[in-house]
């Protein structure tokens, strides 16, 4: 009999705990969902449970539609400051630079808009590109929410998507321009923050960016990982409200953007929120027998009002957790 007394080199290595199931569909650390796959509903649910974030491929949305809006956004951000200011101030809707919300700052300029009433101060070609993009992405969001319902075994299929289909749904579009920041050295851990870490308060967010890096997501173990840009895909975030609707089963993902030292990053994000008067609470069909809501009752208006008084980094949902 051979007795092995010495450990092999491999056995001596420290064990790294895998932070994701081996069975999932991933590109690096980012879960992938192929909208044309028969497994899409299961993939969406797995990604929302694991991370609250996924990359959406084969979404069927024409590059022309996206490119049209991106070109208009580039034109807008290239205008002199006084012309950008004519879009009104970002609080509540309009052009903002550096200042985010009440307390935060970032290496960013942006245009924040209500999706249901497009800013009349913008050029007509910009407004038309916005209106086409918003209606297309709103439909995509609803399709994804219906896939989630299907994957969760919920009936009717529109139980989540109807929150975005109401005339009074609170839908927004945000165009972010992160100019290059020469002093941002991502390799030496001294990156300048473009948009500080936060979760999105809404139900769902759909992001599309140009091919410049910067977006990072926080994994379950707290590690920050870069999301490689892909201008032909969308990136989808679970928001705080969807975490509540699923009683914590789906996770609202923490994310942030670091400034790139050489290239401009341009992102366009659609935020899908319910009507202001809508009660946000776990769906009874998702609750196991005896399961209680992790959150106290609130309406979207209450949550939004509270959220807008917080700092980006604050744990907003924590304020609504029971106990
Ligand atoms: C994050 C998601 C959206 O961009 C946004 C942001 C909003 C803002 O920029 O004014 C908030 C931020 C976002 C979360 C908490 C509050 C509100 C800044 C901030 C510190 C438009 C939204 O709805 O919430």
Automatic annotation (TrEMBL):
One MF annotation (Gene Ontology) recorded for this entry: gibberellin 2-beta-dioxygenase activity
InterPro entries according to UniProt: DIOX_N, IPNS-like_FE2OG_OXY, IPNS-like_sf, Iron_ascorbate_oxido_reductase, Oxoglu/Fe-dep_dioxygenase_dom
KW Iron (keyword) present: yes
EC category: oxidoreductase
SUPFAM superfamilies assigned: Clavaminate synthase-like
Highest taxon listed in the record's lineage: Eukaryota
Protein name as catalogued: gibberellin 2beta-dioxygenase
Gene: GA2OX1
């Amino acid at each position: 009999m051979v007795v092995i007394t010495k450990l092999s080199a491999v056995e001596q290595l420290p064990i790294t705990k895998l932070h994701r199931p081996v069975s999932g569909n991933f590109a690096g650390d980012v879960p992938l969902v192929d909208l044309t796959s028969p497994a899409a509903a299961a993939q969406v649910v797995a990604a929302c449970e694991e991370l609250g974030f996924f990359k959406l491929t084969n979404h069927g949305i024409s590059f022309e539609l996206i490119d049209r809006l991106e070109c208009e956004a580039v034109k807008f951000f290239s205008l002199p400051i006084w012309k950008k200011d004519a879009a009104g101030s970002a609080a509540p809707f309009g052009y903002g630079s550096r200042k985010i919300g009440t307390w935060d700052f970032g290496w960013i300029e942006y245009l924040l808009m209500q999706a249901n009433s497009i800013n009349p101060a913008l050029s007509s070609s910009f407004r038309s590109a916005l209106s086409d993009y918003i209606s297309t992405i709103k439909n995509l969001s609803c399709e994804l929410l219906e896939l989630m319902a299907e994957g969760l075994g919920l009936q009717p299929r529109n139980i989540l998507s109807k929150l975005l289909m109401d005339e009074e749904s609170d839908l927004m579009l945000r165009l972010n321009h992160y100019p290059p920041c020469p002093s941002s050295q991502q390799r030496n851990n001294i990156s300048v923050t473009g948009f500080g870490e936060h979760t999105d308060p809404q139900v769902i967010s759909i992001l599309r960016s140009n091919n410049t890096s910067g977006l990072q997501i926080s994994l379950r173990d707290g590690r920050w990982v870069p999301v490689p840009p892909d201008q032909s895909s969308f990136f989808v975030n679970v928001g705080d409200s969807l975490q509540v609707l699923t009683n914590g089963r789906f996770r609202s993902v923490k994310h942030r953007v670091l400034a790139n030292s050489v290239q401009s990053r341009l992102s366009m994000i659609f935020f899908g929120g319910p009507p202001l008067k809508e009660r946000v609470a776990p769906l009874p069909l998702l609750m196991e027998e005896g399961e209680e809501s992790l959150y106290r009752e609130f309406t979207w208006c209450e949550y939004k009002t509270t959220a807008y008084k917080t700092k980006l980094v604050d744990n907003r949902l924590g304020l609504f957790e029971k106990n």
